[in-house]
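dumping these here so i dont lose them again. two proteins, back to back, each one seq then structure tokens. dont judge the mess
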Amino acid sequence: MAIRTRKFNVAKQQASTNLELIWWVFMRLSGLLLAFLVLAHIYANNIRISNTEIDYTYVATRFSKPLIKLLDVLILYLALLHGMNGLRYVIEDYIQHDGWRNFIKYVLYVLVAALMISGTMLVFSFPFHKVGG
């Protein structure tokens, strides 16, 4: 069951397990961190430069920098885990049958893992440094 409070001490009392409390804390921290990371991403790619300057060479040059790769993978992981946990809360609240609830959660976990793996492989295995000459 999802914890329905905004205060940590009350959340500790409502949590059925320590893992549930960890997820509750994660949702708050990841939401805050995602807000700053996404705003920085939007500023760097949409405000600082003109949208007419964004082409394949710009993206390849940007992704040739290891720090950019790490930041984008961090955004990917945080967004996927934050969204997965939110969907897990919805599944816990609205699907009453234990078998269906567990099945749907396992499918969700597999999809998130597949997206994390494929996103990481795309960012780190594509030879962006070989583009443009």
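---- next one ----
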Amino acid sequence: MASLGRRIMIVEDDEFLIMDLELTLAAQGYETVSATTVAEAFKRLQEYSPDGALLDVNLLGVDRSFSVADALVAAEIPFAFMTGRSRSYLPDRFQRAKIVAKPYRLDDVLDVLAEITASPLNPPDPQTGREPR
């Protein structure tokens, strides 16, 4: 399961989960950037231009990551939700979105990331390993 240096944005309010995901993804060759709030996620999205994203549905307080998911859809950036809730909790527009069930297994996260970032239509540059933008 090669990551080809893909950039992944992690939107999660639990700092320990962020650290765990960042370490695991780095060991697999992914580059990561994280955000703990919706506002921070929008800033990172502009600065970072990720190849994929993992979104915790429920962030601190009443914050939900659905507006971030909408922005990712508009930018054609694949993502998966991470949640302990059932699919029925998601708005209708996200009923077909990929989900990593919490508590998650790291292998499940890696499998979903490999799936959402796979793109046979855009082969990676042989020198950089990055897909064309």
